Request: fold
Amino acid sequence: MSDSNPLPLRVLFCCGVSQNFFDLPREKIGEVWQAYGAMLAAVEAMPGVRVLGVMDDDRLVVGQAAGAPWTFYIMADVADFDTTVAVCNLYRTTPVGEYNLWRYGKIEARVGRALTVPPAAKPAA
Reply:
């Protein structure tokens, strides 16, 4: 018996900003921000992706955090592995001036499933 409606992958995309971003002069930072905005819009619009939320921890982590390499996180339900790869690939294809976004940041995907707590087991008689 096969399930014709498989559950989506629950994916946590961990996104970090590299030292290249922090080395930019102030007048160039906006261009990178716009690229991040374009990348996030592309994730939201991608078929097979349902973004559940985006969390940014920049209020308590300022600057490049070597001990905690991630800056923001995207939690999403994703149709399949190839779509997960396509989201990560946006860092390779989103332009930032003469470069691409991966010059200024990185992404890593953690793939699992939604946590479902099983019903309580009946005590043995």
Summary: The chain has one domain: 9-112. The two ends are 32 Å apart (CA to CA). The longest strand covers residues 9-17. The beta strands are 9-17, 49-56, 72-78, 95-96, 99-100, 105-112.
